[in-house]
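User: Reviewer 2 asked us to show a designed sequence for the structure in our supplementary figure. I'm pasting the structure tokens here. Could you produce the per-position amino acids so we can include them in the response letter?
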């Protein structure tokens, strides 16, 4: 997977542009008047406690949830108010715990990656061209998981299957990769390996939105951090400005000391 070159005109329209977005799930307001602009190639972390609305925000991007209509609301992808869902999937790749649960079945690793071309769960009567197989093989090699190509998802660890799902999300060489709580259930070795994979993807030029409640998930390549609580964005800015004792303590309602070590941030003292 060669370096993804960002188009020269990428600055013309933001990749994502939200203004005044409010979303309900049933009677519950899960997003409250949020605004966000994301440009192509940005590396962003959205950090917040469980129940903050982070997964609802992702489901709004994937069009599983829709904002309440208001004249002042903007909800655009690459400058468009209306877009085809298949174009969206080619622009933004999403990896979530729900997707991993869906793929916990007897599917070969290579077929998991190939299924990304058709947005399917495995392969059935889908046409797979030699070019698709070549691209999938390149991605497996890039992610250093070629040895998982013939393994079944039911035989793999959480970390291994998650890396295959990243491969599935990358088959269209999307502008942005969104990861929802990507390190949940990973042990220390799997966490180390996964963070290395994510750093490699980031350095190859793919934009990243990392959604997490774990401060230590934020890889050094991420430069912008957004704090989220109670369905709202409470802070948004450069990583070093946002990840402070005061901000993180207020976010999680505990006294903390935030320290930086080799580009990673950790919270202690709680």
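Assistant: Here is a per-position design you can include in the supplement:
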């Amino acid at each position: 997977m060669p370096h993804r070159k960002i188009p020269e005109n990428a600055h013309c329209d933001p990749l994502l542009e939200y203004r005044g977005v409010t979303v309900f799930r049933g009677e519950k307001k899960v997003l409250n008047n949020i605004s966000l602009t994301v440009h192509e190639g940005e590396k962003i972390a959205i950090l917040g406690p469980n129940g903050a609305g982070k997964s609802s925000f992702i489901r709004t991007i994937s069009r599983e949830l829709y904002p309440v209509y208001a004249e002042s609301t903007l909800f655009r992808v690459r400058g468009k108010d209306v877009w085809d869902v298949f174009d969206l999937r080619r622009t933004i790749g999403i990896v979530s715990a729900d997707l991993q649960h869906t793929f916990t079945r007897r599917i070969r690793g290579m077929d998991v990656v190939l299924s990304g071309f058709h947005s399917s769960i495995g392969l059935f009567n889908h046409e797979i061209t030699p070019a698709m197989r070549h691209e999938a093989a390149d991605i497996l090699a890039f992610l250093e998981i070629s040895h998982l190509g013939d393994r079944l998802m039911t035989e793999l660890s959480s970390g291994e299957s998650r890396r295959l799902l990243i491969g599935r999300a990358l088959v269209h060489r999307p502008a942005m990769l969104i990861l929802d709580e990507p390190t949940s259930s990973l042990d220390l070795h799997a966490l180390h390996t996964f963070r290395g994979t994510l750093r490699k993807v980031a350095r190859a030029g793919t934009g990243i939105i990392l959604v997490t409640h774990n401060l230590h998930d934020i890889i050094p390549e991420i430069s912008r951090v957004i704090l989220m609580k109670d369905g709202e964005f409470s802070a948004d800015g450069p990583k070093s400005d946002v990840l402070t004792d005061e901000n993180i303590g207020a976010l999680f309602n505990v006294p903390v000391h935030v320290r930086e070590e080799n580009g990673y941030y950790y919270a202690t003292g709680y």
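For the response letter, you might also mention the following. The chain has nine helices and eleven strands. The longest strand covers residues 28-38.
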